[in-house]
TrEMBL record:
<protein>
    <submittedName>
        <fullName>Peptidoglycan-binding protein</fullName>
    </submittedName>
</protein>
<dbReference type="Pfam" id="PF01471">
    <property type="entry name" value="PG_binding_1"/>
</dbReference>
<dbReference type="InterPro" id="IPR002477">
    <property type="entry name" value="Peptidoglycan-bd-like"/>
</dbReference>
<dbReference type="InterPro" id="IPR036365">
    <property type="entry name" value="PGBD-like_sf"/>
</dbReference>
<dbReference type="InterPro" id="IPR036366">
    <property type="entry name" value="PGBDSf"/>
</dbReference>
<feature type="domain" description="Peptidoglycan binding-like">
    <location>
        <begin position="140"/>
        <end position="183"/>
    </location>
</feature>
Amino acid sequence: MTRTATRKTGRTRRAITGVTALAVAVGLAVACVAVRPWTFVGHTAGTGRPTSAAKVDVTTLRTQPVVKGVLDAETRLGGTLQYDASSDFQPASGVITRLPTPGAEIATGQQVYEMNGTPVPLFHGERPFWRTLQVDAPDGPDVTQLEQNLAELGFFTGTVDGHFDWLTREAIRQWQRSLGLTGDAANGVFEPSSVVLAPSAPIRVKTVTAKLGDRDASPGSYTGTALHVEATLTSTQAATFKAGDKVQVIMPDNTTIDTTLAAVDQGGVSTGKDGQTTQPSARVDFPDQTQVTRFGTTSVQLVIPHTADSDQAGSGESLIVPVTAIIASAGSTYAVEVVRGDTVTRIPVEIGLVANARVQLTKADGLEAGDKVVVS
């Protein structure tokens, strides 16, 4: 398939597709002089009206019908199946006595690492834990977040309301005992350093940078567990594509997944490095992760279909001819030759999208669907 860049404006597209068509049509123009003896120097395109007709033996000509429809094309992009950007684990507040395993997936309540001989499990929430929480602690969203995690693990059975009462204390005691704490260590008091907090769970351990025995160090980094595709766009593509557009993802084994673009980022955001900015990009998410988990991080292809615009307002359709019907003339003008009866008439045209060896005509006065055009 011949693909052209999606245009930002009508003028831009014609300039882009005109280059594609010109490469095809210039070569054809030479052939046309040799095989079309009815073509005279005086039959020039670009006048805005059909030129004079020439009588020929039309039975010797190869023709194809002009059709009216929608010319489809596609944009192919290289993309990467990857996890979200990584985040560092918060530093331990003691000695690291056991480390996580890179690539391990950890759910809420499961151990991330061990500090001072005690498991440090995963909790999730957007708000950092910043204070010791115990009975009579002022109400707050951090209490709500703590109760939500304890309820998810089955320890808290009260109302999640942001109020730390005896039910919250008893839930913490049960949770502490489940971690192996006994005696005064299972005191019903929550310390922020007793958990690893991530915005969501589960998580995937990406790197382990600490060593056993390190004190007050971050164990490493983590990501979410969901894979998605990121693909870099041109500024024109970013202005054309939008979230919800159809896309086909071609996996390394050539299987395909039909889905939609989750987001299109226009880029231009400062990276904080020497005036650099982010590039435009598109993102594809996979609600059904079983479709992609076996591939891990890898390169993929994205195929985004797009449709030619029509100058015929409201119809959504244009006249379409084979690319071999296009004749390139001086001044980057184009024409087709139509057979009517026993005559051949050259008609100036303007071209739009070129795809699948067919050309969209954005202007073709005097040409109608069903007309027979001469092809090389």
